[in-house]
Amino acid sequence: MKTLLLSSALAFGFMSLTSKSVAPTQSSIKASITRGKQVYLQQCLACHQVDASGVPNMNPPLIKTKQVLGDRTALIKIVLNGLRGVDIDGDSYNGVMAPHPDLTDQEIADVLTYVRHSFGNKASAVTAAQVRMVRAKNKPAN
Amino acid sequence: MKFIFGIVGLLLTGLVANAQLKLPAGFKAVTVLSDFGSVRHIAVAPNGVVFIHLGKLKDGKGIYRLQDTNGDGKPDKIFAFGDFPGTGMAIRDGYLYASSDEEVFRYKLDADAKVVNPTHPEKIVTGLLARGEHQPKAITLDYSGNLYVNIGAYSNACQLQDRTKGSPGQMPCPILDSAGGIWQFKDDVPNQTYGDDHRYATGLRNVVGLDWNRQTNTLFVMQHGRDQLSYLYPQYWNDKQSAELPAECMYELHKGSNCGYPYIFYDQFQHKQVLGPEYGGDGKKEPSEHYQDPILAFPGHLAPDGLLFYTGDQFPARYKNGAFIAFHGSWNRAPEPQQGFYVVFVPFENGKPTGKWEVFADNFAGGPDKMSPSKAEHRPCGLAQGPDGSIYVTDDNRNGGVWKISYHK
Q: Are B162 and A49 in contact (CB < 8 Å)?
């Protein structure tokens, strides 16, 4: 009984530890969103606009698009490598997005978490650990 | 019955017009086409038939011929042709000229402005660079057999890495050999492309609005100025300054004109050319080489997409030989409020602007809360003059259309 209790406690402890490193807590997500907003204001707003609605034919919107809500690895790569031309729902956007390898893992995680929780978007948070992994394997196109 | 429909039609078009565009006293706008598509540039034949070019194909076609046979102001005969989207649209001497982003074609028109062979236009210019950024090829023609084509620079300011903080400006800018200027071609010679003789003017970042001035017999263009001063160089400009700078400039061009892009930009507050920050500028330093000055400078980022010299007799005399400019509306003023979304008038005297300009047609966006590129109900783009002296304005939003503006005493 004692062993069972102990192992359950250990297992519980282990689970919470792993869950902490994989899925961030509500309060850490909130803090990430707050920091991410500042990154958005400095790095993204000029092109994607205050309300993330973008500019027709030039700079894509960040509202409920598959790029924003979808695969986090692909999304992280857009920030790291930039983008030149993209089609979204049959509309093409020809604006040029600069690469942002100068942003830290945490800044990229924060800004993507902010965008995925704002402007009507609802998607999971992005963590600095995920950005670190993507950056380690990232080979910029040019 | 037809009469009643006509009255209802007039009432409807009148209502639509009055609810939207704000015009000076005596002017009235009627909606020729609405909820149609992304209407870029427009040309009107001598018999009043209208041709529009779409930025995105509609039902597989890029060019639409609009004819109003019953005089109610609406096209009742619509004919679609051309399987390429694009911007350029102009008529000269019985030909309709149309550009894709890489080529310029022309279609022969008959006496009724019908397209003689809609599936086989002549290819006049081919092989032009189109690399996404600034790729539309706006066109105009003079009256001595020449076609002028804008080839926009595929860059913001010719940085080694476009729009990237800390990336230096390339010296010399390699883009300028094949873009960033106006190229001149014969209007009737097939398959012309790049070549030293064809470059007419250089140092122009991107031109969408351009027109031949018949009074001065010269080419006038509106340049889209560079973006992102405060984003790329916060040490020299704050967001407020960056919203106004650089000026959107009108240039009167001659063969060999060099307007200085990307090495300089024009600061309308200091009334001078300043060195671009990618080339050592700090907002005050002047370039060692002086480039051609603009003939008129407008506030930054308003995006002039249409230019038309008014030669008609319908409008009051002060409009004759003056310029209308369609300002598409800004995006690069954020986080400051966006501006533009209007057509302005620039009075000219003896072939020179008087220095003043005024908003002529306003409220394309549809209200102060819609002054942003994605929220604006309409964004003015192309301009043309009809044979009766009215002018046409296009809207290239996804569901854009065409207005006709007339003057009634």
A: no
Q: What secondary structure does DSSP assign to B14-67, as a single string?
A: HHHHHHH-B--TTEEEEEEE-S---EEEEEE-TTS-EEEEEEEEETTEEEEEEE
Cβ distance B372 to A57 less than 8 Å, yes or no, reads no
Nearest to B161 among A58, A85, A98 (CB): A98
The one-letter code for the residue type at B304 is: P
Q: Where are the domains of chain B?
A: 2-407
Structure pTM?
0.92
Ramachandran quadrant class, B127 (left: phi over 0; alpha: psi -120 to 50; beta: rest): left
B34-82 pLDDT, tens digit each: 999 999 999 999 999 999 999 999 999 999 999 999 988 899 999 999 9
> Which percentage of chain B shows pLDDT scores above 90?
93
Q: Which of residues 111-140 of B touch A (CB under 8 A)?
A: 132-133, 135
Interatomic CA distance for residues B233 and B86, integer angstroms:
34
Return the domain boundaries, chain A. 26-137
Among the partner residues B162, B228, B331, nearest to A49 by beta-carbon distance = B331
Does residue B206 contact residue B175 with C-beta atoms inside 8 Å?
Answer: no
> Fold for domain B2-407?
Neuraminidase (2.120.10)
Task: With CB atoms and an 8 Å threshold, state whether B331 touches A82.
Answer: no
Tell whether domain A26-137 is in CATH 2.30.30.210.
no
Query: Would you tell me which residues 79-108 of chain A have a C-beta closer than 8 angstroms to some C-beta of chain B?
Result: 82, 84-85, 91, 94-99, 102
